[in-house]
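We modelled the chain as a single entity of 677 amino acids. Its sequence is:
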Amino acid sequence: MPEAKPQPDTETTWTSDRARLDLVPREPGVYLMRDATGQVIYVGKAVSLRQRLGSYFTPNPRGTARTLAMIRQIADFSYLVCQNEVEAFILESNLIKRYQPFYNILLKDDHDYPYIKLTMQETYPRVQKAWRIEADQEEGARYYGPYLNGDVNRAIQTLHDIFPMKTCNRVFPRDIGKERPCLNYHINRCIGPCLGEVSAAQYRAVLEQVQDFLEGRGDSVRRRLRADMEEAAEALRYEQAAALRDRLAALDRLLVRQTAVSGSRFDADALGLARNPVETCILRLEVRGGKITGTTTHFLSDAGEEDTELLTAFIRQYYAQARRVPPLVISPFALPDEEREELGRLLSGLAGRRVRVHHPARGSRRQIAEMAARNAAETLRRRSLMTGSTQEALDTALQLLAAFVGLAAPPARIEAFDVTNLGGADRSCSMVVFVHGRARRQAYRQFHIRGFEGIDDYRAMAEAVERRLARLDDPSFGQRPDLILVDGGTGHVRVIADLVREHGETIPVAGIVKDSRHRTRGLALVDGRVIELARALGISGEDGENEAKPRPLSRDPDGDPDSGGADSLSLDDLGREEQFRLLRLLTAIQDEAHRRARRGGKTLTRRRQLHYKLESIPGIGPARRRALLKHFGSLKAIAAADLAALEACPGLGAKPAAAVYRHFHPETDAIPAAEEN
């Protein structure tokens, strides 16, 4: 069902007397806000219900723009008193899942990211792939994830390789003894509950090992397998011992591949957060025994909340349903002391022991926090390129983009440019290509800026676009673009539009603008207007570049853009989903252009540093540098080479070889000056 935004009730003015807060208890609990239709629009938790509700029902309430908008919708409220803060914490999470209130930050189900499901509520549990967490979780089913689809398939196959559980569709105990055991039983990959010789408790013990493994206790599973193998060997059950040996070897291979993050053994969850204008990705790295044992990815709707709000909303919703809470949750940034302490109390209450929420400043835990952040950003980038990528969604976004920039038909090929400056010597401009709304990576180009000295984004982008315009008919660059997008506002757009006209071309030009958090916010047009998509969607509270509100734009590319006739198009004409689709497309294009530009800039920096490092050696110039790199392949290989290997490099010579060796081995006395001559 599409998301319905509550309509404002401007006549409602709440006071503490009208809300009768004197009748509200001071105990902990959960409160539900409803609009005039009776729909639940917000669910919250409070240590003191009266104090928290009093912050809403006052003539001059304080809060973010989203909170104030929610208060204007409230027509009624109710509350549930709880025994303690932890009980309120769990109830809040359950009610948010049930009502999906508009003004709550919501975890999303996503079909690109399925779960591993253990049906532990059944007498003979099974391992399955599930696309969402269902109601059977309350009955005892266990969900792990979500993971990438291919990762889930490989993980389930690995579990079947290690643990002797059934893969058939037989229902036990109903089907016990009805059919002969399958091949898996005969090759020791299933203990054969279908024969009736294995009790439900024995079979369940196998699935409990699977559960331990998925929860990061692989070492304990390994010890158990080894003990069973040794016991079988001592009892002369050699075939059983061999099967256990093979399972132990498969488990060892898997455990070896897990990344060690610390010399010490500790358990933690490291959270990484990344955002775009539409949604937020929170990635959870699971660290058990000092090793990364798994990762899960979660998405929340993003309506302009602060990072702290999004992170705390995730922690409350996720860990209220988690089977195990680790003793340490590593935060991607420092939380306010009050918020951090409250989360620590709640998680400690769930775990039954002390749990800390901590942002490390240094050491291995800092490194894993940075790893989680990098992976969250990469996951969100991938999702932005894939979400809404159905042909219908892309067609809608391209049609809207065409209408705003003045094209008669949706652009088949879009080329987007972004400049990166990592110093005066490391300047480049990326060109990314989207064909029918999808990234075409083989068509990307990187332009190194050489036409002037210093840092000037306008001149750098103009140089790159001019070089592209000079090769419009070059088949190695592909087809001519239908639309040029630049990373920047109306100033960038005017410079590039003038350049296109000077070349006698009529290719439309537009800009993709960012907000103060460097997130895509809208589209800058050549006539000076900015289509403020993020603001129209209510997910950006900042003002536009130079307009209070975008004026209508004609659908007719040959008409007057300010005519405002019957056929005009403005953001007010678009539904929320149409606005989202266009913003998703622009976000995907801008993020990809920025990623490519940043990568190109780093490549230039590495190349310059490599050149400098080698050419700073006496006797090594450009020709000998090229000879060294061609012969050895990398700077690392050159540094590791001995003197004989360097002297064998074609085109180098004995004296330069000695200089190179001494440069990378300054501690050596093996090359007397006499030998150099």
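As a brief sanity check on the tokenised model: The longest helix spans residues 576-615. The first strand starts at residue 29 and ends at 34.
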